[in-house]
């Protein structure tokens, strides 16, 4: 596969009210393999801060005396920040350049990870906020860098990017408890360790800083996206499927511990489920684009997700790994299809950039309500059984939105030069 980056345009979303998009023509990247390595290492760091907490949540709550409601807020806060801080990414990129922003935010991510491990309850919540905000900003910028510098291999590079996300999540979910045990039952070490790969990624990303100067800019405007029903269906599908994903990241190990598993076993079950996502995240978009539209694929992956969730929550534990695999197949497909829909429903790259910002900003904000609801319901009922209703409501709503978003048509807006 030829990795020579194409001279292409950088699309940055202006978060101001006129919804301008800036087209920027950068020079060719001289060392594509170094850029690819940097992208992979950065992507690996976009989930460990989220997935490392779940296996240790019971220990953290017990150590700090957190109620289930507070624990729910702790799992919700980073996801909420993904949505709230996503619109700041284009503003920062226009001011400082995408490469510099990625480097700086990797350092703030490392700071947030270590902060939540050293200052008790206050540090735990403040560090989670910083980490979530950092992930939200980088998550918006990386796909644009991939599109700009690997335009001829955008599909393959997006697959590599998605696989790196899943791998980082799986490693953190599986290793958090063993790390904590190895260092004397210290949950702070189990959480704080993930500062190290963030610093390594920052070091490897350093050569990318200062690569582009003085690019020509042409502004584009995309109007009316917030009034388009199809754009809202894409956004709702992104948000609702993400809500189920972050419920799994935040609460699945606690649910399994409540059913009798050890913290290590619960963490490994989550890790195994995420590893399976590596396969379906690549396969689902390829299969979905072979038909006339994506509606059937969306229904299938959402049914797999719900089946896996209900199996993990209610089925006998001797079949847990089978249900974890079903869950991973479903969730890998739902996430990758959500990203694919943004591209397929857009007439051009400028519309896609704006639709991506809308889907991530609003969608992730919506997604944060799921983990919070699970924490509140558990606090009210004293058990996990009633949370199945939350899964059902979110899953059915995601299918309804997804069937609308999966139709073979474009959002009813276009881009124009200003």
From TrEMBL:
Q: Which GO terms describe its cellular component?
A: membrane
The record lists the membrane-crossing segments as 33-51, 71-89, 101-119, 125-146, 158-180, 186-209, 230-249, 269-289, 296-317, 323-344, 351-374, 386-405
Keywords (alphabetical) are:
Membrane, Transmembrane, Transmembrane helix
Please name one Pfam family that this protein belongs to.
MFS_1
Tell me, what is one Gene Ontology molecular-function annotation carried by this entry?
transmembrane transporter activity
Q: What domain of life does the UniProt record list for this protein's source? A: Bacteria
What NCBIfam families does this protein's entry cite? CynX (TIGR00896)
Record protein name field: MFS transporter
In its UniProt entry, the species of origin is given as Pseudomonas fluorescens
């Amino acid at each position: 596969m030829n990795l020579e980056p194409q001279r292409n345009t950088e699309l940055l979303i202006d978060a101001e009210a006129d919804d301008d998009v800036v087209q920027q023509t950068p020079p060719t990247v001289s060392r594509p393999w170094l850029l690819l390595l940097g992208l992979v290492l950065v992507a690996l760091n976009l989930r460990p801060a989220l997935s490392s907490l779940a296996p240790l949540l019971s220990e953290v709550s017990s150590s700090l005396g957190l109620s289930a409601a507070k624990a729910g807020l702790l799992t919700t806060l980073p996801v909420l920040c993904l949505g709230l801080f996503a619109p700041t990414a284009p503003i920062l990129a226009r001011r400082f350049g995408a490469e510099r922003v990625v480097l700086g935010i990797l350092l703030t991510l490392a700071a947030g990870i270590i902060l939540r491990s050293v200052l008790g309850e206050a540090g735990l919540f403040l560090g989670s906020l910083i980490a979530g905000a950092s992930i939200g900003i980088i998550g918006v910028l990386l796909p644009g860098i991939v599109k700009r510098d690997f335009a001829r291999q955008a599909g393959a590079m997006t697959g590599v990017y998605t696989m790196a996300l899943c791998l980082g999540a799986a490693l953190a979910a599986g290793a958090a408890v063993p790390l904590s045990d190895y260092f004397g039952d210290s949950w702070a070490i189990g959480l704080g360790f993930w500062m190290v790969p963030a610093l390594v990624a920052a070091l490897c990303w350093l050569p990318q800083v200062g690569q582009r100067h003085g690019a020509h800019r042409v502004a584009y405007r995309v109007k009316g996206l917030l009034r388009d029903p199809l754009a809202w269906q894409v956004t709702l599908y992104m948000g609702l499927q993400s809500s189920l994903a972050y419920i799994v990241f935040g609460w699945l190990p606690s649910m399994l511990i409540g059913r009798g598993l050890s913290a290590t076993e619960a963490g490994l079950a989550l890790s195994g489920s995420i590893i399976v996502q590596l396969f379906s995240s690549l396969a689902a978009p390829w299969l979905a684009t072979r038909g006339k539209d994506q509606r059937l694929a969306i229904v299938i992956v959402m049914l797999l997700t719900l089946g896996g969730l209900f199996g993990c929550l209610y089925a006998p534990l001797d079949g847990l790994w089978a249900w974890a695999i079903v869950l991973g197949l479903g969730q890998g497909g739902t996430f990758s299809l959500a990203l694919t829909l943004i591209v397929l429903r857009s007439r051009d790259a400028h519309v896609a950039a704006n639709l991506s910002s809308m889907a991530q900003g609003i969608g992730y904000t919506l997604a944060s309500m799921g983990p919070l609801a699970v924490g509140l319901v558990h606090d009210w009922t004293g058990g996990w059984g009633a949370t199945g209703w939350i899964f059902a409501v979110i899953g059915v709503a995601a299918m309804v939105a997804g069937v609308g978003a999966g139709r073979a048509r474009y959002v009813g807006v276009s881009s124009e030069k200003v």
